[in-house]
Structures are given as structure tokens and as C-alpha cells.
Queue: 4 jobs
Job 1
Amino acid sequence: MAELHNMTVAELAAGLQKKDFSAFDVADHFLKRVEHDQQRGSNSLNAFLDINREVTLAQAKASDEKIAAGTAGPLEGVPIAHKDIFVTRDFATTAGSKMLKDYRSPFDATVVTRLRDAGMVSLGKLNCDEFAMGSANENSAYGAVTNPWDTSCIPGGSSGGSAAAVAARLTPAATGTDTGGSIRQPAAFCGITGIKPTYGRASRYGMVAFASSLDQAGPMARNAEDCALLLSAMCGPDLDRDSTSLNVAQTEDEKKYGFSHLLRIDHGDKPFAKAGKDGKALKIGMPTQWMHLGQTSPRHHSSGAQPQSEPDVQINSRIDQSLERFVDLGAEIVPVHLPLTKLSIPVYYIVCAAEASSNLSRFDGVKFGHRAKEFSDLADMYQRTRSEGFGDEVKRRIMIGSYVLSHGYYDAYYLQAQKIRRMIAHDFQQAFAQCDLIAGPVAPTTAWKLGDKADDPVANYLADIFTLPASLAGLPCMSIPVGLGDMGMPVGMQLIGNYLQEAQLLNVAHRFQQVTNFHDATPEGV
């Protein structure tokens, strides 16, 4: 039997049901790994912000009792850790910010509750960029997270703590949130699998808000099968608490198996030969524009350095090799066009900043969170509290958002951004008329070195060029590992489906992972 930390969610769930090991032993095993990492001082990944051994082991004992009584949930006793953007009663919720240092919520987020109802045991809270704003996990008020593949590199953001913890086998699974790519990009950089479902599939109740029309919860794990199991537990209508929650009728198979129902269908050696529309070959669209877009920073222009105008050769190579494998499995690759991709960055950073400006106005030092110790009057308290509590990136986005929403600029910026956002969504629908799903890179490069872009926010923004379009359209999308780059760092491939097609995405990814072993790669020393 494999060591507990090398087992997948599915393997742990099966072993627990068969009583090969106890939930208490599993929880204790992972807690010891987390504690060992934290004791490494400056060499720690800094992935966890809060653990509570007593709470975790009490949950594990309760799971053992349910298993013994035959009343266990589908994921009973399997550990999970939560991004510190979900509020929890038993662990502090900081959203990676000084503004919420030591904050304790009186309730759990719906996602946390549903995973606990499925039997999962909480290991603790995971580090993230402050209020989920960032692409590198360097914006956390509690220090940067490092990448277990190379601790001198970033793990991606904002769900970098989640990705690093899963990759380092500190937890078999984690929750993340994706506003503009914050599940997919860190999953790609850390060599794991992550999926953002259709906007509204997972409740936002209890998720500390960043950009409400974009924020969406999703699971991060080793492979697509695990993500399917987790997504089945996380998703579902929550209309009483979240007005954006989708009330989607489930098929009989989905009621029985959740998002993993298609994983059980056997299509033989050519699983994609008849998996597309009308029983024809699965058509995978490859956006022609994506091979000519990359990171171009104005600062790089002024310094004389050559800007990167397309994804790294190593990224293209791994994507091409993986697409060839899909063809071997019966799929057909077709070109599609997403002409407005280049506008997704300005559109996203106008919309998300505007919504952040509104959402973060609640942090004023009056009701909860940080409050300045010295101030002269109410206005001074607001100013000092927010100046002390927010980090630079959060302040930057609040100021941009306030500007684009201000009188005289709303029509010129915010309204125009919303119009283009609708056009981007329309481009996707035209593409899906020609294909079943879309594939491409997650990011133009592999993970970069810590600090390389810390003083250049525009370079960080440009790293999201391939993840932003699907987020703006509210589409389901995921990242799967497709090998290592030239420097030994993971490369991820993005799969994008049409609305509510999570099961198809997971099925395609699962079939790919059945004939490849990229998702089994482990960082050295883990």
C-alpha cells in the first residue's frame, strides 16, 4: 500500500470505507507533514496559515464513528484544506490581509459546509494573495508561498497556498477560488489539476468577496477524478444565501455519481472517437490568436529588452505533444478564433477593480477587522485603518476601481469594459459552434523566480492573458499537467468547456490522465 500522503482522494476514500486505515490516522499523518514543513523555518513553503490539531482530530474521530455505523458520507474521513478566503468557525479567516488578522467567523462558508457534510476533515487554512488579488502569492500579508518544485520560484496565485500544499503532499485536496485564473494558473505552475466551474455552480456565500461577478470556488487535487468527486460535493443551488447561485436540474446519472458520472463510461482505445456532438469525434478547438500572445510589459520596452510576444517554446511544445495524444485517442483538432483575447486584460482589470472598490468598502474599522489605534475623528479613523490594513496591490486596485466608477469616467471605462466583456462571451459561443471544447496554454511561461515581477504589476497582469477570457465569460475551465519545461518546472494545459459542461471537461481530462502520467510527477524530496 502506498504511503498515505501519496494516495489520491479516491484512493483514500476507498481505503477508509474498507477500513484499511482510520480517518484519525490519516488526519494525524497529514498534520505531522504540515507541522514538519512549518518547523523548517525559512525553508518552509509557508502554505498553511492556521491549523488546529484538536479540531481536525475531533472531526476525524467523528468520521471514524460514521464509517463504523454505516452512515458515512461519500468522502468520509478524507482530509482537505481551505483557501483562506472561505470563512470558517474553527479556524481564523484572514484573506491573506492584516485587515482581518485573527478574525473568527460565526459561520462556515457554504462550500466548507458541503464538503464537511460529504465527510471531509479540515486540516486548516491556506495562504493566498491578499483578498485573492495577485498572480504569484507574493501579496499575502503573511509572507510569500514558495513552489515545492523549486522554492526559489512562485507557486502562482492567488490560490498558491492551495496548489503548493497539494503538490507537496501536505493535503490530498484543497479549495481554491478563481476570479481571473487563480485556480488554473497555480495548478499549472505546481503540476496539479484544478477546475473552475461555470459561474454560479458553487455558492459564493461565505467567500470573502473580491469581484462578485467573477469569483468562483473550485477544487484543486492531483487528478481529474479527484476534482470530479470534490466538485460533486461542493456544487449545488444555494438560492437562499447566494442570489447568483444556479438552480440547475441534474440528470439521473449526475444525481447518482455527480460530476464523475462520465468517468464510468468505457469508450475503448479511442474514447474520443464518438464523444463529440451527434456521436462524432470530439472536436478540440485551438485558438489561433493564442500562439501569438504573451507577456509584454511597457517597462520591458523602455529598458530595451525584447518583449515576449508569444508563449515560451517549451510551453508550445508540451501543448502540441499533448494535443497529439488527444488525436491518438480519437479527437480532432480544429482552429477557432477568439479575436478579442487581447482586450481581456484591460477589460478584466477595469471590471475587477471596480467591484473590488465596492466590496472592500466594508472594511472600515467600524464593525470588524483591523482598526487604527490612534485617530482624530471618524474620517481619520477610516483613512488610517485602511492605510494600515491594506497592502499595496489592494490599494492599487481600490484606487483604479474608484476612478473608473467615478462621475465622468464610468461611461468611458466601466461601461465600455462591460460591453466588450459581452462580446468576449459571444466569441466563445461562435467558437463552440465549431468545437466541443477549447484547449491552449494556461500561462505564457512556467513559474518565475520570487521577486522577479514584484515591482512590475503590469507584468503580473499580463501573465493572465490566457485565463482571463473564460473568466469574463463565466465558462467552466481547468488546468491539467502536461509535463515539465526545460528548467524542470511544471507546464499546464487549459481546457475550456461551454456552460455547465463540467462533466465533459472532467471526462476528457480523466481519459487523458489514464494514458499519461504527468499528473503523478512529484517534486524532489516530497
Job 2
Amino acid sequence: MSKKNPHILIVDDIPDFHQEIRYAFRKGYSFEGAIGVRQLRDKLRTKEHFDLILLDLVLEQGSEEKIGLELIHEIKESRPGVPIIVVTGEHDYKTAADSISRGAQHFLYKGDYKFEEWEALFRKVIGEANLKDENKKLKKKVKELEIRHEFIQHPDYPIIGSSPQMERLRRSLKIAADKGDLTVLITGETGVGKSIAAHSLHYNSILRSEHPFEEIFISNIAETMLEAELFGSKKGSYTDSKEDRIGRLQLADKGIVFLDEIGDLDPNSQGKLLQFLQNKTIRPLGARKDVDLDVQVVAATNKVMKEEVDEGRFRRDLYERLKVFPLEIPPLRERRADIGDLLLHFLKLNTIQQLQEVFTPEVINILLKGYDWKGNVRELQHAVTSMKLKRELEGVSLINLECLPNEIRAFGQQYTKLNVASPPNGQLDGHTETEGEALPDMSDWPVKMKQEFDELQQIERALIRMNGVKQDAADTLGYNSSDDIRYRVQKMIKTHPGWMAHFPRIQRSYKKYMKS
């Protein structure tokens, strides 16, 4: 049943009956009332949700016509999933049978009113309706998944990347999602996306996606409170325990609990978690009885768990239970093919070519091929946010070296020197890098012109260093292909033909595009 109080619509022509029911069931239920057919129809036309309808059969005082029987079909048409309990003052078994045959779930007599029996029936009927509704949703989702047979991207937590490692991760998450009782251990460095993977697993689960996803950061909870937080507690079971507390594992019942930073779990809680994994029961602090739960456990850590076990900080038997289905997410530096996809995702772009409309070639080369991204996806996401703000602050059209976060910029300056440095004595392939005219004074140039001239300088240096091999120069600068360089050079020749005197290597490499 829903955690909210069930909402009941009372349909009866006697106001006193409304008052009696509202008072008797004031704890645990909320009510709406309709006196007569007209008010009932008004209520049915609203978008208000009802968990149960109590329907009197005689809805006009002084009349003996059981109009309620005729209304059952109308109610079922309007609110097909809402159960109906017919309530009347007469002991008429034929009428009771007629009501149920028309679609009512049960029949009650006002003269036999007993709170406990009525309350039990309310919960039974509402619970059965909710279960039926859940089964419908489950069947619908199963059908959808059976049609597609593939991993479905979470709209808020997508797994980004086209590398073989990410393809394997998506397949593995789909397997874990399909097997709703499988315990999963996700490992990987900080920032690789372990939480995103856990959310994706829950979203793809046929059995559990409609139920809670409880995310628990172990290291954020004080060790003295961890047991009560996970397993719950009874009033008075510890200092300042002034009321019963439901544990986070119990809140995840029928769903998934995600235990992030599981390597930080204290020894006492490790033992209780092991017992839960073995028996699927918990015992809250101070309780005398166990509580049965149906929860899939997904744990994650950035620690090397074998080392934690070998050094005695983590129970070996618990580790063995957790790693039934281990998933490792490799660091970003080991799957560089995903960096471009992630940049597109965070910049809300569609194609790699569009990166050249955001970054200078030098920066693209640093981001895609040079920088190690020790903070992984999280660092990349924060870097994109920082670079966009710095571009706005600097008033430049393309994100250049100066727009990079400090650590990446310091790396980039060294990386650029190493990768586009001149050969010894400035000599390569019989030509010197200083063959062109002296560089112009650019102090008064607009920012865009400075960027374009700087781009030509980078292309010139790359062509010299790569001995005129255009594809190698394109790779060095972070372009997709040599066609991208050709396109940029053609555009510059057309826009700034006078600049070409400063770039003899470009002239030789693209002489057929030079104007006489």
C-alpha cells in the first residue's frame, strides 16, 4: 500500500454516516464525500485520486430504488482501477450477489458495523487493488523490455561512451537488472560513475524499478549511528532514541539499496550486513523480532577490496558475498574514446565536428589526447562548467588555453611545448620554421582575428613537426581528419590572404588553393 494514507470516497445520502466513518477511521485514512448521484459524478470528473469508494445503494431519502447498483458500471468506466465496497442497511444476499457480479469488490451491512472487521476489509481490498495495479505496470514493463531486449538509458543518469568498456558495462548492468536477487559490487576510482551505474541498474530492473532506490553514503554517517541508520531501532534502544526508527534497508523493501563506499563499513555493521545477505532479514536495535525484506543489494567502492580483506579491515566472508557479480568501471584515461562523447554530452552537442566550434584545436588535443583526468568523469564535467564560464569572462568565441582550469592549463602548456616543439635548429625536411615574414603586431587586433592567426600558427608548427604529413598534423591538433585542416586553411586563405606570407609550410602544403 502507498506510504500516504489511503483516500476514500464515501457515497451516501445520510450525512451522519459520513461523520461516523470519518471519525472512526480518522487515523490512517483521508476522506471525500458525495451525497447523491450528482455529487458523485462531479467527484468522478475531477483528477482526484481515490483508493476506495464506499457506495450506498439507496441514494435518495424516502426512495427504495437501489440506484447504486446502476452506478457501479459507471464508476468502473470512470475509475477502472478503484475498488468499490457496497454499503447498505439491508440484509439482502441477492442484492449483495448482484453488486459483486456488477463489479463491486465486497458488500457490508451498516447494522453489522464493527471497526476492526471493516478496517481489515478496507486494507485487504485496497491492498489487492494496489497489487493488481503493480502487476499491470510490471507486465507492461516486461512487455516493453521483451520487445527491445536492450539496456535502456536512464534519462537523468545515462551511461555515456562508445568504448568497448562502456558497451560491456551496459550489457553487465542489464544482466544484473534482469536477475533481481543478484548482489552486485561496483568498483572503480572516484568520479568514474559508480552511482550512475547503480541508478541505471535500478531503472532497467523489471522487478524493482517501480519500487524504492535507497542510496546510502556509508562514509557520511557517524559510526555510532550507522547500525541504527541501516537496520532501524526501537524507541529507547540508545541515547536520544525517542521514537521508533525505520532503517534504510527497510525503506528499500522490494527495491534496491545502493551502499556507496562500502569499504568504510565498520566491523559490527559488516557482520549484520552479512547476516542480512544470507537470510534477507534484519533486526532493528532493541527489537525482539526479525523483519523479512526483499531487497537487491548494490555496493560500490573506490578501494581495492582484496587489499582491505588481506589487511584485516574488511571481512572476507562479506566480501565473498558482495562480489557475486563484480563490475569494474575503468578510469577515463583507459578509455579515451569516451572523452569526446562526454564533452558532447555536457556541452549538449551532437557531433565531434561541433567541438571545433567551441574549443581551439590546441585545447581539443589537450582534452582528448593529453590530460589524464585523474578525477575521471566528475572532473571532466566540472572542467566543462568552468571553461564555459571562463570563456564568457574572457569574451572569446573559442575556449583557448587561458580558459582551462588551472591544473589542466599548467599541464596543457607543457604538453603543447612537447608536442609542437620545433626540431633541432628549427630545421626539418630542408625548410626552417623561420622562413616566413616577421610576425605582425597584433596588439590592436580583435580577439577573433588573434584566435584565427594563432590557429594558423599551430597548423604551421604541426605541419613542420610532422614533415608535411597532413593526417599526422590533424591527429596532433585534435582534428578528426586532414580534411578539417584543409577546410580551415581554405577559409583563412579566402578571408586573410595577406597572412599566408607568414606561413610558408602551409603555402607549400596547400599551394593549389593559393591565389596568384
Job 3
Amino acid sequence: MTETVVSTEGSQEREFLGHPIGLSICFLTEMWERFSFYGMRALLILYLTKHFLFSTGEASLIYAAYTGLIYMLPILGGYFADRYLGSRKAVVYGGLLLVIGHLSLAFEGPPAEIVAGAVARSEEYVSIFFMSLAFIVTGVGFLKANISTVVGALYGPNDPRRDGGFTIFYMGINVGSFLATIIVAGVGETYGWGYGFGLAGFGMLIGLATFLWGQHLLEGRAEPPNETELKEPIFAGFLNREHIIYIVGLGLVGLMWFMMQFQELVGQLLDGTGILVLLILMAYGFLKSTKEERERIFVVIILLLFMTMFWMLFEQQGASLTLIADQQIDRNVAGLNITAGQVQTLNPFFIIVLAPIFAMMWTKMGHAGFEPSTPAKFALALIIVGLGYLLFVWGMSLDAGTDKSFLWMVQIYFFLTAAELCISPVGLSMVTKLSPTRIVGMTMGSFFLFIAIGNYKAGELSSLMGVGGHDAGGALDMDKTNELFMYAGGLSVGMGLLLLALTPLIRKWMHGVH
């Protein structure tokens, strides 16, 4: 219900369900963007192994490079928006790139074939596929961080509705993810990959159209910081800064297309950048910080390192767990045939179910004085996700053959989601609270960088699970898979217990930050 009210600052403001009406546009835009993103992700590993006949190792490394770059580019997109474009223009440009990327995936080309014992695939269409991913990676880079910035800009600095607004916005992510993994994955696997990818692209087109239509409802709160500077010609007499940024964006598409074809290079870039960032943070802590600031920076570094392990296991959803669902699980549930990609619906489903429970649990524990601190929640996330994989391996070993119970997929996704709810809601907030104001932007960038590293490591771990050679169809070696899951799950539990033991010291270094 839309109404006009007087805001806390004395001006009239159109509202929707008690929030600035612009929130409805951001909610719908993000919902459709996530619909396209998660719909494509649900199909990606299956498309690579079944259409192009990439091996498990090859497909998983492509997935690794893609998800790693997805979380790395928002650092640059956020900079362009903060310094020049403003959030609104960045979201529009990112949305346009995403539409191009998702819709171009619909042109799948001829499937690969086995000829004389070797895989023969159309290199032209493989190149087009990599270019599509490059458009998506760059589009997410411009849109992802900045749509959240638009939401924040709708509220005044002391507006008590801000947290509620972000909660509503977060639900848009989960609604889009839930619908995508049911609809897009089902259509793509049942009727053809191109139809699924095309549907994801159409969803992004709706999201972009919604944002373009509703820009006036943002009431000028996400505009460029300096419109005059942005429009000032700086090249050839007619190209201004805005034009140059858009051209740079297209250059980034080309760079991402190149990087996607050299997946190991992406991993090396992420690892090298991660080490460099940690050294810079440590140097800043020792050379330009007070003792209190330095110790808080050390806390950030510690939690970033532990967080990487979590994301490596969490992001198996789009890689090895989807291949397991395809090859090892009886997906006939109560008479319904669930596709392998649709199994990923379990994560947003459990988010919707468990998020209110966790919120109430933390609140009650807080009132009683027992709510875990941020590092303790990180530790719990590592322990829960590790135990989830250990239980998953044990459960899968109980069922012989390739018709294992669907309940084991329910189990692992339940543990993944419970762990996610311990770490995701507090992660970024922790970084902003602990980092010195002078470097908060760099520290937030570091947070996303280590998510990117964790995502890449997820694909790297999945790449070790294939039967070896050109295993057409992405066949898994389940003995090797179970062994890796046991090792990674045990390591995660061990790291969680170590972090729990270090929590008293870490809390001391946090100097009152919760």
C-alpha cells in the first residue's frame, strides 16, 4: 500500500509498507537480478559437462574462475560509482551488461561429441560462451554492490527503518533465488539449455526495465557525486568521464573474456592479491595505527582467513553437490521428479524458514547475556559446515548404488544454510565496525576479495573429484569425492574449534566492538 507521509526531517515522502517507496524498486530489481544469476548458476556446471562435455576438472575450474571474478569485480564497480557515476547510473549500466550476457547464453550452439575417443566441440560457441560469462561478471561488478548502496541512500543517517529496509531487500534476494532454481533449472534441464538461459536473461531484462521505470522514485538520492565533473569533456573534445567509464567497462568485458579462458591464472591473481592485501593491512596496522586500531585490524585479518574455508565448502552447491545430485541421488520425491539444478532450491528455502528462527534465537540469547560474539559465530559456522560434510559422507556410504536417498541432500543443505546464517549477516558489519575509518573502503574490498578466493577454492576442490582424463559428462569418482569431503569437513571443524579457543583473545583485541 502506497501513501504519502511526513518524514522525520519534515518533508513529505511517498512510502510503501512504511518504507521509502524507492525500496520497492530496489527490491524488484534485485529479485529479478538474482533470478537471472541463480538460475544461470543452477545450470552452469551441468551445461558445461553435458553440453560441452567438459571434464569435472575442466568444468569446475571454469566455475571457479567465474565465481571468483564475480566477487572481485564489485570492488572496482563500487569505486567507479562512489567516485564518478553514482549508484543509479552504475546499476543501469551493470543491468544492461547483464541482460546482454544472460540473453547471449541462450545461443548454445551444437553439443559436443565424442569423435575417435576425443571430445569435439565448437570452439566458436565456446568462445561465445566465455564472452557471455564476461558480460555477466562485469555487469555484476557494476550492479551488485551499488544496488545495496541505493537502498542505504533511501534512509537518513538516523532513520530507525534502515535495518528493516535491508531485511526486506534481503528477502528479494531469496525470493529471486528460490524462484530461479525451481523455474530456470527445471526449464533448462527439461526443455533445453537455451530456454533456461533465455528465461534467466528475460528475468534480468524485467529487472532492468523495472529499475529504469522506477528511477524517479529514488528522488535523486543515488546521483553522481559531481555531475559537472562527470560531464566534463576530457578526450577528443566530446568524450566525457561518463563515456570513458562506459568504455572502460567494455574493456573489462574483454579482459574478463580473456581471464575466463585461463582459469589457473585467475586463481594465481586472487591468491597473489590476497597476500598483498594482507601485507598492506598489516603494514598499515604497524606503521599508521594506534595500538587499538592495530589489534582490530589483526582481528579482521584473522577472520578473513578463517572465512575463506567456509566459502570453499559453502560454494560446492553450484559445483560438486550439483554433480552428486545429478549422478548419485534418487530425485523422485513424493512422485515429483526434481532436476539436479532444482536441488539448489533447498538453500533459499531453508534461508526463508530458518532466518526468523535464528534472529529470534540471537535476540533471546542477547537478552540473557549469552549471544555468541562475532568470532564465535564465525567459529560456529565452520564447525556446522564441517560437521555437515562429515555427516553427508557417512550418510551417502549407507546407500549403495546411484539411487541414494534425497534426504542426504536435504541434510547437507540444511547444515550449509545454518552455517551461512551464523556468518553472512555479521561478516560485512564486522568489517565496517573494526576497520579504521580511514581505510574502511579498502577493508570492505578485502572482505569481498576473500569471498572471491573462497569461491575459487570451491571450484578448485570440486575439480579434484573427477574420474580423470576427459570424463565426458563430468563423471565423479565418489571414493575420491568422499575422501576430499572427509578431509575438508574435518579441517573445517578443526579450524572452527581453534577459532573458538582464540575467541577470548580476539574479543580482547576488538576493544568493545561486538
Job 4
Amino acid sequence: MVILGVADGPSAAAAVVVDDALVALSTESLRVDPTSVDALPWRAIDDALTIAGVSLDQVDVVAVAGRFSPLLAVRRRPWLSALVAAPFSLAMDAQVAWQAFLRVSGFGAVEADRAAEWVEGRLNVHGITPERVLMVDAHRALAEAVYRCASEDDVLIVGLQPMGDGTATAVHRGQGGQLDRLSTDPAVSSLHTHLARVTSALGLGGPVSPRRLGALAARGTPDPVLLGLLASQMSSEGTALARWAGMSSVRADDPLYARIRSLSPEDAAASIHQNLTEAVTSLVRRLIRLHGVPKVALVGEVFEDPRIVARIAELDGVTKVFALPASTAETLAIGAATSQAGLGPALRDLHLGADVDGESVERVLAASGLSAVRTATLPTRLAAGVAVARVRGRGGPGPRALGARCVLVRADDAVAIARARKALRVPEDEEALIITIPTPNEGAIEGFEALRPTLALGAVAPKVDDVFRRRYAAVIPKDGRVWMMRVEKEQEPGLHSVVQALVRASGCGAVAALPLPDNGTVSDVAARLVAGDLTAAQLGPFWVDAGGRR
């Protein structure tokens, strides 16, 4: 049985399950007109099937995450394109109200059936003729993904997704391989519109992602006046978030948004983040007490922020916290596929992307005029303060592909990190992922035991002690939290050996992982080497120096 899971939207993804295993994941940014009927993530779909080694005609089931996807609805009805608007408009309120109406009425099933028929038609044109096409509730897909990939059974799964098929909050329990929904927010909450609007008001070119919001907040100071204004809109009310205020115009001189615009992005972000964190942690604390389950899995757009994940782990009564490092699109695609496969819970290898083989690397290097050698010089160059691109093996989910697609710099070298940021044009509010291995001088990590499974995947920003802060001051923001991936030899032998060799060479037990520009492909990195943005790279089995021209 071949199951294709698809997540639709500006950031889209596709995942493939073959028989009883999740085997492929691919992402795509849809840079085409969002109202186009051809805007399904075809490249992600084709790439995922290629990675899985199956052809178009072998797909048995296609599961699409989201029963009433707003973007899908617009593409099915081009006349609605004029209503696709920025967060500061009534169009967002109308969209929220419409999804909530579909969820609680019989029209939701009709809409989902019509959407499935439309998707099937587009798939057929593309050459995919599955036996079934179905739309999977967004919160169900999120819960399936985090439960099927979790390292623990019997977990309380809390999902917070602003556009989650008519509700922002859903609570599930995963136990013995079964996933049961315990509750959903009975009414539309302020989370639907609030987060998009306040992060847009930061003036950074549209809504800011939760992870970037946390990184900005870590460098700012909360403003008491703004905190008071935010508290009137976002708070926890028992086991739900504050109610949605209803359709109302958003004026440019609204005191809340005016105050956000009057502050620096860092201080405004710190206020927004503190308010959101207090609301979310209060909600999760009450849910844990209500259901009596001390192990928690967190999923949805809000929990893409590794700082909020860490704060949940610090709550009394929490013994384990699990979160995926994947984007919401990746998580939805994984969940849509696994929801139809009946997989049991177990932490699987999440390196699900395309492999980087030596033959393809040699072809790219030859075309670029670069030469390569098969030597393991990466730790030596890192010890010398050189930033090294790493593109090898199968990529994983998340912005650094579990360390398989990134630029590595030793984490205690502020000059080298600044130089790499400048060369790659990485903004200051794009936080580095710190990859560490267990070393005697690493210091203590707050809530370590509860965070152990999540630390292994780089989905959390715990608070570290003075030992770590003194050693790696170059990567410690104002709030003392570090976005961290702690590598064990059994799980990530390649990365572990690199950092271990760096420890022997320099005493440094951590590297800062910066994002690769573009898509992080071998061709992209080769172009950066030729342009001089990078000086060294580990590509597949090869070592490449920018000066090593043919």
C-alpha cells in the first residue's frame, strides 16, 4: 500500500508511507499565483514519490491535510481571489467564521467531499489515479504526526493551530497505538486572528513565524503598557483560549497595534511572546491536571517556537515533552499520510529527504570547475574558525534538516559566526541552531530529563547554566535560552563524530548551524563556493575548498 500525504498552502509538503513505514518527505514553497488551479505542490509530490522509489501509478491513497483549506477553497473558486487579503482586513474574520460554521454544521462534510473531488481531478490530470482521495482534519493530521513519531506511548497531545479547520485548539490522547480526541475548543478563539495581526504589526514584511518571534523576543525587553493591551485579547480561560471578539475593523490607530509599531521590533516581540507564552503554558497546565497525563506532545504552528516548548517542560508535573522539528506543512503532510496507515508509535529515523550521492556531487563539481577529495578535514577546518557547508546523507525536517543541510561554525567563535552571517546574508533575528554532544564541560540544561527526546531533534530552546553561558557566550541571547540539538552517537553518528573530533582539536563541544541560502542543494552550495560566499563544504562523501579549482 502506497499512501501519499499532502499539505497545501504557501509552504507545502508531501510525505509517503509504503506499507508500514514512513519513507519520504519533501517540501515546496509555492511561488505561483495562490489562486491558480495548478498550485498544488507538484514538485514536492514528485520528489517525495521519487525518494520513496514509487511511480505515479503505484499510489493507492492520497490524503490531503485540511478539510476546508482556505487556500484550496480559493483556488477552486477563482472569483474569491479578491478576498484573499492581509491580516488587517475583514476577509480574515470572514474566513475564520466560515471555517467555524463548516466545522459545526453538516455543510462541512459536503465541502470536504467537493474538495476531495476537485483534488482527485487535478491528480488525474497529473497522472495520479488513486483508489481513494480524502481530506483529513488538520488537527487530526497534526496529532497523528507527532504521536506516530514520538518516543513515548500514553501521551497527551496538545495542538494549537490558528487555521485548524474551524478551531484553534484540539486535545488528543495517544495510547496503545490508538489516537482519541478528548476535546476541541468549543468556540472560535482569539488565536485565529490575533497572532497573525500582532506579528504583522512588527513591520518586518508580513506575519512573523513563531520561531523567529521567539528569537526576536530573546533580544528584547517586554513593555508593560503593551503587555496590558495584549492581555485583553490573549489569555487562557480554563482549558480554552480567550474568545474571538467577532468581526471588527482594524484601524491604523488602534492602541494595540499603534503601541507595537512605536516600539523596537525586539521589545514588541518580547511583549507579544511573553503574553502568548503565559496564555499557552496556563492552558497546557490545566489540561495536564484535567487529564492526569504527565507526558506531553506538542504540535501546531504555535509550538514551532522552541522557547514555548521548553517552557512547557518546566511546568510542575510534566515528565516528558515531545515536539517535532518539522514545519507545520511538513507535520501536516506526515500526519495526513500516517493517519491512513495504522502505524504504531515509535521514534523513527526522520531523515526522509533525498540522498546526496557521490556521483551527482562529482557531476555538479565538474560543471562548476571545482575539484574535491575524499578526506575528513571538516573538524580541522571548524577548529580553525572556518564556516563549512554540510550537505550530505538524507535531509530531515526542519530549517536545518537535522544538521544535514546547513553551515557549521564552532559555537565559541563570535568572529567566525559574524563573518559567516555576513557572507551568507543571514539576518540577526535568524537564530542559529546549536548542535552539541555530551561533554564534561557542557554545563547543565534546565529540565533535561523531560526534554531529552526533543533535544535529540532540535525542537527546543532550554535555559542553560553559567558554565554553558561562559563557554558559548557568542550564541547566548539575552534570555539565556539556546535553540539546541543534543546529538547522541546512536542517533546521529555523522554529526556526533564531527563535534567529537572538534572537541579533541579545540575543546569546543558545540557548533552553530546557520541556514543554507536557497534550497541547500549541492548546486546551490557549489555556486556559493564559486562566488566566494563559502570557502569550504562537505558535499556527500567529498571535501571541497573554494580554492580547489580544476
